[in-house]
Design a protein that fits this description.
Layout (H helix, E strand, L loop, with lengths): L2 E3 L5 E3 L6 E3 L2 H13 L4 E4 L3 H8 L9 E5 L5 E10 L4 H20 L3 E12 L4
Parallel strand pairs: 1-5, 6-7
Antiparallel strand pairs: 2-3, 4-6, 5-6
Helix pairs in contact: 1-3
Length: 128
């Protein structure tokens, strides 16, 4: 489910005209993934069957279960799919994910995230 949709590369223009800064799509997805996994109650990111097969082949990364859409006004729309640990309030965990993703993106890249949609795809019943 990791997918990045955009019409043009995200480029930051320097006011002093000393050059440009490009932020790779995988960097944005990884920041979102890391932010999600740092939220208490999140067991793991989940994705489609294709991503699950790829992760079993050793190409597991933090962008599993993440979709990033670059909007016209340079804001982001993010969709994440997670597995929540048993015993945690799903609504509270989802709200924490939304806030953590928005804050992490703003802090690390300067990108404003307009929308974070959280899909809880399963519950982790294991005792770890």
């Amino acid at each position: 489910m990791s997918e990045v949709i955009k019409d043009a590369e995200f480029v930051v223009n320097d006011e002093n005209d000393t050059g440009i800064i490009q932020i790779a799509d995988d960097v944005v997805s990884s920041i979102v993934g890391l932010a999600c996994t740092e939220v208490d109650g999140v067991s793991k990111l989940t994705g489609g069957i294709t991503r699950d097969i790829i992760s079993k082949l050793g190409k597991n990364n933090l962008s599993n279960g993440i979709r990033v859409v670059y909007q016209e006004n340079n804001d982001l729309k993010v969709d994440v799919s997670v597995e929540v640990k048993f015993g945690f309030n799903i609504v509270d965990v989802s709200k924490a994910i939304q806030e953590k993703v928005k804050q992490s993106l703003l802090t690390m890249t300067g990108l404003k995230c307009d929308t974070v949609n959280v899909r809880v795809s399963s519950i982790d019943f294991s005792e770890k």
